[in-house]
Amino acid sequence: MHLRYAFRLDPTPGQRSALARAFGCARVVYNDAIAARERARAAGQPFPTAGLLSRTLITEAKQTRERSWLGEVSAVVLQQALRDVEAAYRNFFASRTGERRGPKLGAPRFRSRKDARQTVRFTTNARWKITPAGRLNLPKIGEVRVRWSRPLPCVPSSVTVVKDAAGRYFASFVIDTDPAADAKRMLASDQAVGIDLGLTHFAVLSDGTKIDSPRFLRRAEKKLKKAQRELSRKQKGSKNREKARRKVARAHAKVADARRDFHHQLSTKVIRENQTVAVEDLAVSGLARTRLARSVHDAGWSRFVHLLEYKAARYGRVLVKVGRFEPTSQVCSACGHRDGPKPLHVREWTCTACGTVHDRDHNAAINIKAAGLAVTACGAQVSPDPGPAPRDEAGSHGIRPAARAA
Fold first, then answer.
1. Which of 179, 251, 302, 369 lies at a CB distance of 3.0 to 4.6 Å from 206, suitable for a disulfide?
2. In the beta sheet, which residues pair with residue 194?
3. Could you write out the DSSP letters of every residue in 63-103?
């Protein structure tokens, strides 16, 4: 399985300038490739091949006066920008023909220097390396200080340098996990658990455990509103407006980081303690269009379930998604009697058949667990195939490890 390990970078002012040049050159090549394809489409001609684009937009462009500055950055960065264009069009066409699942994708768009996220990717051909001192040596950029929070488990195949909206720099390494090592990390377990996700409590487990919803966005609303008001009062195009924009971005990044850390810790705990995990397949996109939209987005259920998916696949656990139309809140977990739908404000109810008093969420979690065990017993497909490398597998909080990755 491919995973990404992300660590914070601390580039010097000179290295920031070099990275800005790399971001800009990659963006120009990306936009030139889209423009070339669009010109061919408008003229009714076939799309230019990747080799032709590489020759005209990189090799020959470097010899011209208008694009001579492309030679100031690593050629691998420019080649990877062309590959990103190819992947974007491939995904677009696959989405239009139905080969790609999920929402329909739009055609690739031009990138802007004002985009919230700027990236460049270095593969092994770029001859980047991690020095014995623990620094990341990038071609034509130099040795960048890395805040290692853990050693890398193996030699990475590529590294992507990311600058986010808050002005922070990250190095995202792609690694291949070792199934044998992953199996040793997680002890065998015969436990099973059902998880009912909600807003009053983020999660209620079938064993009765209730995990409170942290509500990171709600707690930060006052600070966010103040920062947003200050931004709206700044003159457009001024340096003070840019400072205010970064302040807003840092506030949002702090909320996102806290939520991500909470999801990682909880999902790892659930996967470590249980062999089978059952969770309801919620229609998050539909719930996000209701009056509860802000609370739904603040909870981040989809992200949490995604973490459960890839961690279950990595460590040999079983994840079952129970259908959203399963009446888990209507069925008595003691006798199986279906007592009918109930409004959301009803948090406890008594079964009319056996008289058992149920906590609404706990009862639903027990029914989700039973439905998940029924699926595994009949041998049905219970988890999707591993997808591409998940983002933000490992965060960094400035902790330097005792051992360095070589």
1. 369
2. 278
3. GSSTTGGGGGS-HHHHHHHHHHHHHHHHHHHHHHHT-S-SS
Q: What is the pLDDT at residue 349?
A: 86
pLDDT number for residue 81: 96
| pTM of the complete model | 0.85
Within 8 A by CB and 6+ apart from 174, the residues are 2, 3, 4, 156, 157, 158, 159, 160, 389
- Annotated active-site residue 361? The verdict is yes
pLDDT of residue 399: 39
Instruction: Choose the catalytic residue: 32, 298, 309, 361.
Output: 361
Active site (annotated) includes residue 393? no
Could you tell me the CA-to-CA distances from 313 to 102, 173, 191, 271 in Å, in that order? Answer: 21, 20, 17, 10
Query: For residues 280-319, b (16+ Cβ closer than 10 Å) or e, as one string?
Result: bebebeebeeeeeeebbebbbbebbbbbbbbbbbbbebbb
Q: Which residues pair with 274 in a beta bridge?
A: none
Annotated active-site residue in 84, 280, 309, 392: 280
Q: Tokens 């008594």 sit at which residue?
A: 350
The catalytic position among 196, 298, 309, 393 is 196
Q: How many other C-beta atoms can be found within 10 angstroms of the C-beta atom of residue 142? A: 15
* DSSP classification of residue 251: H
Backbone φ/ψ region at 309: left (φ over 0), alpha (ψ -120 to 50), beta: alpha
Greatest alpha-carbon span in the chain:
84
Q: Specify the amino acid at residue 337.
A: H
Question: Rounded distance, CA 215 to CA 182, Å?
Answer: 32
| The pLDDT of residue 42 | 94
What DSSP line would sit under 351-390, residue for residue?
-TTT--EEEHHHHHHHHHHHHHHHHHHTT---SPPP-SPP
With left for phi above 0 and alpha for psi between -120 and 50, is residue 58 left, alpha or beta? alpha
Active site residue 196: yes
The neighbouring-strand residues paired with 212 are 201
User: Within the chain, how many helices (H) and strands (E) appear?
Assistant: 11, 14
For 58-107, the pLDDT digits (tens) are: 999 999 999 999 999 999 999 999 999 999 999 999 999 989 988 889 99
